[in-house]
Amino acid sequence: MSPRTNDNATPDAEKATPDESTVGAMPAENTAEATPTGDTADAEVTTPVRDENTAETTPAGDTAEATPVQDSAEATPAENRAEAASDDRTPTADSGEDTADVAEAPDERVVAVRRLSASQPRWRTAQLSFCAAALAVAMTAGAVVLGALRDGGTTPAVATVSNGVSPQLLASGDLDASIASLQAHLRTQPKDFGGWSTLGLAYVEQARTKGDPSRYPQAQQALDRSLKLRPDYDPALAGRAALAAARHDFTGALKYADLALEQNPYSERALSSRIDALVELGRYDEASKAADLADSRRPGVPVFTRYAYVHELRGDVKTARRVLRQALATATSRGDISYVATALGQLAWSQGEYDSALTYFARALAADDGYLPALEGRARTQAAQGDRAAAIKGMEQVVQRYPLPQPLVELGELYEARGKAGDAQKARDQYTLVNAWVSLARANGVDADLDTALAAADHGDRTAALKAARDEWARRHTVHTADALAWALHVSGRDAEALPYARRATATGYRNASFLYHLGVIEQATGHTGKARTALRSALDLNPGFSPLGAREARTALEAAQ
Predict the structure, then answer these.
(1) Residues 516, 320: contact at Cβ < 8 Å?
(2) Can you tell me the distance from the alpha carbon of 165 to that of 149, in angstroms, rounded to the nearest whole number?
(3) Rounded CA gap, 310 and 485, in Å?
(4) pTM (2 decimals)?
(5) Can you say whether the dihedral through the CA atoms of 445, 409, 383, 483 is positive or negative?
(6) Contacts of 72 by beta carbon, 8 Å cutoff, 6+ apart
(7) pLDDT digits (tens, 9 = 90+) for 302-328
(8) Which residues lie below 8 Å from residue 112, measured CB to CB, with a gap of 6+?
(9) SS3 for 98-145, per residue?
(10) pLDDT mean over 141-159
C-alpha cells in the first residue's frame, strides 16, 4: 500500500494499490475531468472515463461479446441510464430490455451537492458537480457493469493478443487506452480468463489513480468473470486481494492473497497484498515476516516500498529511507519512479526535511508531471515552509481533478488558516465534498469509516466521527485507527477514555507529528502536564508544519502547558 501519501487516513484509495511492475505501473492523468458547461446546477457534467454502462451478452455459442454503450453522467435525470448486470448476460442499451433509471428517486445528498455547486464560483462547481454526477451514477444498482471507454466516440483497435493478456500491456502506455484495448480484445475473445483478470486489475489501478471508487464494482465483475472461466487462476485471485484491500476489506484481502499464494508462491502481487493486509489489520509482527518472505522471493519496487513502510511503522526511518532509495535506484518505468520518489518525499516531509522532500517531489513530477500524490505532497510541503499561496494553488489543482478526502481537508484548512474574505465558505465547500466522496465510496463497497472519523472529528459531526472510529476499531487495531478513535473521543469530551488509544497509536515508535500532537492534547486534558509538554514539543520538533491548523494549535497547547 501507499500509506505514505496519507499518513492520517487510509485511502483514500490511494493506499490500497501502489504502482507495481504489472498493472498500472504508469499512473495516467485524468483525461476526463468533470467539466461543467455552465454555472448552474443543471449543467451537464461529462465523465467519459466512467464506463459503467456496458453489456456482456453471452449467447448460447462460444462467441459472446461485451457490447459497449454510450456512457455519460448527466445532470438531466431522464437521460441517465444504467443496465442491471447478471452472472453471464447483461442487456444492452438498445436491446429493448429494461434499464435502470438513475433519477426516479434523487438522493438528498446529490441534491444538496448540486445546490451548493450552483452558488459557488466556476472552479468549485466543477468539483461539486463531479461528486453529484458520480453519486447519481453510483447510487444506481445497474451502473457497475463493464463497457468500453467513450473517448471521443472511438475505441482504439487492438492487435491480436494471445490468451491470458500480459499485464505488462497496461504498463506500456496510457492506462485508459490500455483498458480500451483490453475491452476491444475481450469483445472478440470473451473466454480469455487472463484478459478479464488484467482488466479487473486495471480497473483497480484506475480507481486508485483517478480517485474513482465506482471502478471497484467493475473490477469485481471482471475478476469474477476470470475466476468463473478458471477458478484457481492466481493472477485473478491476487487481483481480488488487491480489490479487497482497495475497499478496505483487509480480512478479505488476506484471504485472497493466501489463496493466490497457494497456487503461485512467487506471485508478486499476492505477496505484496498479503503485507498490505497484515499491516492494515495491525498485525505488524506478521507483516514484518511477510515482508522478509516477499523480499526473499520477489525483490523489487512493490516489495521494497512495503518493506520500507513496515520499518517506518516501527520507527526505523533510517532503514525505510535506505530501502526506498534502493527501490528508486532500481526503478525503470515512469510510474515506478514517480511512485517511489513520492514515497521518499513524503517520508522526508514527515521528518520535517522540507528541502529534501521538494527535491523528491520534483523528481517524481519529472517522471510524470501529472502524478497527483507528488503534486499533493509538494503543496503540503510548501504549506509547511510558509508558502501558503503556492500551497493553496497546488492543492486546488489536485482537488479540482480528484476530490479525495485528505487533500480536500488540507485545502479547507489552508483556507481557514489564510482567513481572507470568503475563505470560511471555501473551507466549508471542501468539507462538504468529503461527505460526498464518502457516500460515493460506500455506495461502491468501500469501508470509509476511517475517512469519516478523521474528517468529521475536526470539521463535521462529532457523533458521527465517534461512531465511525468505534466501528473501524472493531474491525482492525492499527496505529491509525487508534489515533482516530483517540481523537474522536477527545473532541467528544471523553479524554480519560481517549488516553489509552492515543498512547497505543504512538507505542510502536511510529514518528508521526499528528499522532504526537493528539497525544499531547489528550495528556494535557487528563492532567499529565509534563507528558503533554513532551509530546507536543516532539510533534513540533519532528515536523513543525505537519498541519495548517494542527501545528498552530499545537504551539498554543504547548504554551498553555508550560
Answers:
(1) no
(2) 19
(3) 22
(4) 0.71
(5) negative
(6) 44, 46, 47, 48, 80, 150
(7) 999 999 999 999 999 999 999 999 999
(8) 432
(9) CCEECCCCCCHHHHHHHHHHHCCCHHHHHHHHHHHHHHHHHCCCCCCC
(10) 28
